[in-house]
Write a structure and sequence with these properties.
The chain is α+β, with helices and mostly antiparallel strands. Among the domains are: 208 residues, 2-Layer Sandwich (Ribosomal Protein S8, Chain: A, domain 1); 81 residues, K Homology domain, type 1 (Ribosomal Protein S8, Chain: A, domain 1, 2-Layer Sandwich); 82 residues, 2-Layer Sandwich (Ribosomal Protein S8, Chain: A, domain 1), CATH 3.30.1370; 72 residues, Ribosomal Protein S8, Chain: A, domain 1; 74 residues, K Homology domain, type 1 (Ribosomal Protein S8, Chain: A, domain 1, 2-Layer Sandwich); 77 residues, K Homology domain, type 1 (Ribosomal Protein S8, Chain: A, domain 1), CATH 3.30.1370.10; 99 residues, Ribosomal Protein S8, Chain: A, domain 1. The chain is 41% helix and 20% strand. It has a five-stranded antiparallel sheet, sandwiched between helices. The protein has a five-stranded antiparallel sheet with strand order 44-45-47-49-48. The longest helix has 24 residues. The protein is extended and about 115 Å long. GO terms for molecular function: RNA binding. It comes from Podila minutissima. Keywords: Repeat, RNA-binding.
């Protein structure tokens, strides 16, 4: 064995095994690393005295690679120092949460992403140090991780190999490492199970990568989402990324109030979200991964709701579009969720405000602004191009214009682009408003008339059915009747009795009549349903009704738990209690007397007595429920939002999880009980807060609400300090920062608000041209914070005095690579050097100062110089490595190049370190082709081109050939389980994998053809071998020998081992009869069961016959007799079990014992005892019968096998016979199937214990209640008692 020493820059984690073969992935990695080293350096390194070893193959690969120019480390802090002060505490990372709507101070989040580019520069390669793992067939993954030299600590005496070995032992993963002498980057290749690789990766970073701590600002409202229940979310992030995260505790102010509104308006979009700094400790890559995890959580947690009220509801259908296609497009563009109310009602603006028809937009502030802009733009255009027309249609036909869930309105809108507006339900107007393009109004009217006349409508005027009664309002009585019919499902029952009939009760608030409407397709259906309704209404006279007034908050006490109170009243007094819906604020409870048989509906005195008794009982229930109280607070309406809190959280916390009080803020709803002016109660205003409930709870809630209001007032006063000053307009971009970064940072740290406005008048061109224009800055907040913010801005203005601009001549084809995906690389340069980098967007003929290839870098002199140098270095790198080659291949070659699920092309890309794009020609091309665009370094492109050409050449040598083989030989060529075919393919030099073999030879089931497909040489050999076997088969003969069926298993051997050995030795085929489906003991067929067929050449058959006969053993035969009455008990389970266990054949009598079979156990009622114990019925059958005598019919079987085996079977059968004789009784007991699991027990342990203790046999029927127990009478009684005990114990526990 040859041991070769390693260079210093390559470390083997398995030094103890000098003969270990380096995997291909590491070999390829070493090839790339060796490009950075000279041959002389490699030779010198091999002579160093190192105790770590590697295989000879690896070293030879290392020596053979050419020298390459050293790559540039763009992340080196020493080469590119960052600007700014060297504060020991890192600055909080700039975030975009809580950004205001100002066009000058807006977040750049979302514009620039963090997705990597496959064409990476060295800096980008280090930024993505950990590559995505590759999974092999065994489930192991391979992952590569790189750590730059600037992040590697000084290890002292400990080597990288020592650390790798320690991590391998703790994680169970395999680790191989190497270090580039040129760049100093250390690469680790980790192999193992996913969990082992993850642990090894964390341990390696913990051991090598330098630690740092950064402050990352997140919204205060996202803190609970970041922590999770009991800190589980935070722990999961730390475990996944390997960092330590410290979340500061809540302050007192943060615990009591929140600045995030549940429903935002224009002012709320300017409110800055309170931020907290989260400390993240770890290496660079781990911190980056942790930030991504935090960003995902925050993006879901920090979303607000904005209510847009500037668009009239009449235009909602046009803005939404047919089936909401327009609004869905806006949602997709802005990444928001928009809820637009379904609008069909034409009403006044005051009524619209009361109904709250606002459009609700959910998302972050920037996206909400974008969505508002799109909606308002669409509204302006729609308002300009639409016209209106009115038409009168009877009120009762309006519903047909709407349809189920507005389907008819959508149909009209889709067909004509017009919307219709229908008067509210409580309006008496018949006027329909049609709105849309002028050319489509007439077609829309045609569709409207078709929909309106599509069904028959009739109504029952409930108000006019009964004559007025003193003390009872006709309208009130009619409303009570409809409530009763609806509550008792009387109307629904009539609908079910008449097909295609719909019955509804229109709203009656403010109406002088109450009606029930019937809709159907035909007049006959309407009339039949109307007659039924009218009959039901006539029976409900005013004498049957009464009303009791109870505060709505107490209605649930009247109903009782699961309706037990009203159910009890119904049963005791025949009175139905109808309580208003829980969403209603009505205090009216309707009482209806209903007779069970209808015989006493004319007894007015009896009815009146029952209603009075129920009224008293309802009053008593309300009085016993609580000492109800009402309190009205006066709190300025501007503070109501603070009392409600985000999504109602503050108010919910005050009221409790199970509130016993109700709180209403502002003016009451029109028509509600609180809207009625009551004596001694002050008039309610928009500042009013009405609290109702138990007296103590009302006082507690009122106290908490006043405390929250006082705290909100204090916060507003503290944040009212304002200062205004001017700065040069030329300095404003630097003060604001990229995407508002600087202003946002000050806002987050100091909790202040900024307002920036141009001070020069719009028409003052002279002042603008002079360059002396200024910008007015207004800062509002706490005084100390405002002064600090002003001082910071003025210092920034002083620091930009040395600003400069540099122009770089860069070819346009390199723009995308230098900018990076979504501006990633440019953003890094701007943040690192504090400059602004602008790439030209378009080319104009008259723009001579800034040509298309000029890139502008502006900022401080030092930062501009650093950014310029780095951009030019990146340009040089791109010119060297960003090369492209185009290959044209035939379309049929593409699947072989791509491979299954892209495995092959991924392998080519990894081996060559290139990117391959596939472009297909269009279907209309005369000559279809596929182009492969290969992008990468020159060496990588050559490698990829070579690998692709190898695949193409290999596929060109593939052939297809049909071989004529009679299908009677197909089975022989395939062999048992495909064994013969696999031997033929292996002999011809074909693949050994079964998946590859399956596509090589295909037998045609419907003809004599065999399709061969593969390499030309292999196909020819397989063909010749098959034809030779077929020719040999024509000279085969068939021989039959008799082998007792009892010895077939012994002759065949375990898993056909004996038979296969004889077949292979003599080239024959041996077929044993299939006896599984034949009843053993059938004398007529016993000879056929013994026949074994041998096929092959005659001489070979004779030799195989001799080998088979040599394995036959001499067997004995003896008879065994039992009383015929016990035949079923002894042989009822069949005789195959005996054959398999004892290797003895049991031959049953020819009649099978069918003649003279014993009668059913329940045929003789004299031997049956019936009974019921603890609710379980049972029957006990006495099977003892007469004693056995000399004339007892016997049942005789033949046993064939060895003497010892036959004796063992006789003992076994005798034991079964004795057990059958002892089983004198049978018990059939019926137990509900729900108890069967308890009786059986886990794994059948309980039923087995019962059988052992009682010496019985139990059989439980599947899916049936019957349990059958066989055994002696005493044992059966024990088993029955045990089963009944299980049932009783289960009932007690329940």
């Amino acid at each position: 064995m040859l041991d070769t020493m390693l260079p210093d820059n390559i470390h083997s984690a398995e030094a103890s095994s000098s003969s270990t073969v380096v995997p291909p992935s590491l070999q390829m990695q070493m090839l790339h690393q060796a490009q950075d080293e000279s041959a002389a350096a490699a030779t010198a390194a091999l002579t160093q005295d190192d105790d770590e070893s590697i295989s000879t193959e690896s070293v030879s690969l290392h020596q053979a690679t050419p020298h390459k120019v050293q790559s540039l480390d763009l992340d080196s802090i020493s080469m590119f120092p960052s600007l700014g002060s060297s504060s020991s505490r890192p600055a909080a990372a700039a975030t975009t949460w809580g950004a205001g709507p100002s066009s000058r101070v807006k977040s750049a989040a979302g514009k620039l992403g963090a997705v990597g580019d496959q064409r990476r520069s060295p800096a980008a390669a280090q930024a993505q140090a950990t590559q995505a793992p590759r999974v092999n067939a065994s489930g192991n993954i391979h992952e590569r991780m790189q750590i730059p030299s600037v992040q590697m600590p000084v290890l002292g005496k400990t080597t990288v190999g020592d650390v790798c070995r320690r991590v391998m032992i703790s994680s169970g993963a395999r680790i191989e490492s190497s270090t580039s002498q040129a760049s100093g980057t250390t690469t680790f290749v980790i192999t193992g199970k996913p969990e082992a690789v993850a642990k090894a990766r964390r341990d390696l970073r913990s051991s090598f990568a330098k630690k740092e701590t950064v402050q990352y600002a997140v919204p205060s409202s996202a803190r609970p989402h970041l922590l999770g229940a009991k800190g589980r979310t935070l722990i999961a992030i730390q475990t996944k990324t390997g960092v330590q995260i410290t979340v500061p505790p809540r302050t007192k102010e943060q615990q009591e109030t929140s600045l995030e509104p549940a429903n935002a308006n224009d002012d709320d979009l300017d409110v800055e979200e309170e931020m907290v700094d989260v400390a993240i400790e770890g290496d660079v890559e781990s911190i980056k991964a942790a930030k991504e995890e935090i960003d995902q959580i925050v993006s879901k947690a920090c979303r607000i709701n904005y209510r847009l009220t500037t668009v009239p509801a009449a235009y909602y259908p046009f803005i939404a579009g047919a089936r909401n296609v327009h609004i869905q497009a806006i949602q997709s563009q802005t990444n928001t969720r928009i809820n637009m109310p379904f609008h069909v009602s034409s009403q006044d603006e005051d009524e619209e405000d009361e109904k709250d028809t606002a459009i609700v937009i959910q998302g972050d502030r920037k996206n909400i602004r974008k969505a508002i802009e799109l909606i308002e733009t669409n509204f302006s255009e729609i308002e300009r191009t639409t016209r209106t027309m009115t038409i009168n249609i009877p009120k009762r036909q309006h519903r047909f214009l709407v349809g189920a869930k507005g389907v008819h309105i959508n149909e009209i809108h889709s067909a004509t682009g017009c919307s219709i507006e229908i008067p509210p339900v409580d309006s008496t107007s018949n006027e329909i408003v049609v709105r849309g393009p002028e050319s489509e109004l007439v077609p829309a009217l045609t569709l409207i008339m078709e929909k309106a006349n599509s069904s028959q409508v009739e109504s029952v005027d409930v108000t006019s059915v009964h004559k007025p009664v003193a003390g009872h309002s006709k309208v009130d009585h009619a409303r009570h009747v409809t409530k009763y019919l609806s509550a008792r499902n009387k109307l629904r029952k009539i609908e079910q009795e008449h097909d295609d009939v719909q019955i509804s009760v229109p709203r009656t608030e403010g109406q002088n009549a109450v009606s029930i409407e019937i809709v159907a397709k035909t007049r006959s259906q309407v009339e039949a349903a109307r007659a039924k309704i009218l009959e039901a209404v006539k029976t409900l006279t005013p004498a049957l009704f009464d009303v009791v007034q109870v505060e709505p908050l107490l209605h649930r006490h009247i109903v009782g738990r699961k309706g037990q109170n009203i159910n009890r009243i119904r049963e005791a007094h025949s009175v139905e209690v109808i309580v208003p819906d829980s969403n209603s604020d009505s205090s009216e409870i309707v009482l209806v007397y209903e007779s069970k048989d209808g015989s006493d509906l004319t007894d007015v005195a009896k009815i009146r007595t029952a209603l009075e008794v129920v009224k008293q009982e309802v009053d008593k229930l309300a009085h016993d429920a609580t000492d109800f109280a009402t309190r009205v607070l006066s709190v300025p309406a501007r503070l109501h939002r603070n009392i409600i809190g985000p999504k109602g959280s503050t108010l919910n916390a005050i009221m409790g999880l199970e509130p016993t009080t109700s709180v209403r803020l502002g003016l009451p709803r029109a028509g509600s009980a609180d809207a009625v002016k009551k004596a001694g109660v002050p008039a309610l205003t928009e500042d009013s807060i009405v609290i109702k409930g138990p007296k103590d709870d009302v006082e507690r809630v009122a106290k908490d609400i006043l405390a929250v209001a006082e705290e909100a007032k204090h916060q507003q006063i503290m944040s009212s300090y304002t200062v205004t000053f001017d700065i040069p307009a030329t300095a404003s971009p630097h003060v604001i920062g990229k995407g508002g970064a600087n202003i946002n940072k000050l806002t987050e740290q100091l909790q202040v608000k900024f307002d920036l406005n141009d001070k020069a008048p719009a028409g003052d061109d002279k002042k603008k041209k002079s360059g002396n224009e200024t910008m007015e800055v207004t800062i509002q907040g706490v005084k100390k914070s405002v002064e600090t913010a002003k001082e910071t801005i003025l210092k920034m203005v002083e620091q930009i005095a040395d600003a400069t601009v540099a122009k770089l001549d860069i070819p346009v084809e390199h723009y995308s690579a230098l900018i990076g995906i979504k501006g990633r690389y440019v953003r890094r340069l701007e943040e690192k050097y504090g400059v602004r980098v602008q790439f030209p967007k378009a080319t104009t003929d008259d723009d001579e100062e800034t040509p298309k290839s000029f890139v502008i870098v502006s900022g401080g002199k030092k930062g501009v110089q650093g950014a310029k140098e780095e951009l030019l270095e990146l340009l040089d790198y791109e010119k060297e490595n960003n090369n492209t080659l185009e290959m044209v291949i035939e379309p049929k070659m593409l699947p072989h190049i791509v491979g299954r699920s892209g495995a092959k092309i991924n392998e080519i890309q990894e081996a060559s370190q290139t990117r391959i794009d596939i472009r297909r020609s269009s279907e209309n091309d005369v000559k279809p082709e596929v182009r492969l665009i290969i992008n990468g370094s020159k060496t990588g492109i050559k490698t990829a081109q070579k690998l692709v050409n190898e695949i193409v050449e290999a596929q060109k040598s593939q052939v297809e050939e049909l071989v004529e083989v009679n299908n009677k030989y197909h089975k022989i060529l395939i062999g048992q389980g495909g064994s013969t075919l696999r031997e033929i393919i292996a002999k011809a030099g074909g693949p050994s994998e079964m998946s590859a073999q399956a596509g090589l030879v295909k037998f045609q089931s419907n003809n004599n053809a065999v399709l061969l497909k593969g390499d030309k040489t292999v196909v020819e050999k397989i063909k010749n071998e098959m034809l030779a076997m077929v020719a040999e088969q024509d000279s085969w003969t068939t021989m039959v020998i008799n082998i007792p069926a009892a010895q077939h298993r012994q002759v065949i051997g375990p898993q056909f081992s004996h038979v296969k050995e004889i077949e292979n030795r003599h080239n024959v085929r041996i077929q044993f009869p299939n006896n599984k489906n034949k009843k053993e003991g059938d004398a007529a067929e016993s000879g056929a069961n013994d026949r074994v067929t041998i096929k092959g050449l005659r001489d070979n058959c004779e030799k195989a016959k001799a080998d088979l006969e040599a394995k036959i053993k001499v067997t004995a035969s003896r008879s065994f007799s039992i009383p015929k009455r016990h035949r079923q008990a002894v042989f009822g389970d069949g005789v195959w079990k005996i054959r398999n266990e004892f290797n003895v054949v049991v031959v049953l009598p020819k009649d099978g014992g069918r003649a003279g079979a014993s009668k059913r156990i329940d045929a003789d009622e004299d031997n049956v005892t019936h009974g019921i114990t603890d609710g379980l019925s049972w029957e006990l059958y006495d099977l003892s019968g007469p004693a056995e005598g000399a004339d007892e019919p016997m049942y005789t079987v033949q046993l064939q096998g060895s003497d010892a085996a036959c004796e063992a079977v006789e003992k076994h059968l005798t034991a079964l016979l004795e057990k059958a004789r002892a089983s004198t009784h049978v018990l059939k007991i019926r137990v509900p199937t729900t108890y069967h699991g308890l009786i059986i027990g886990s794994g059948g342990n309980h039923i087995k214990q019962i059988e052992i203790e009682s010496s019985t046999t139990a059989k439980i029927s599947r899916g049936d209640e019957l349990i059958t127990i066989t055994g002696p009478k005493e044992g059966i009684e024990k088993a029955k008692a045990a089963i009944i005990r299980v049932v009783n114990n289960s009932d007690k526990r329940a």
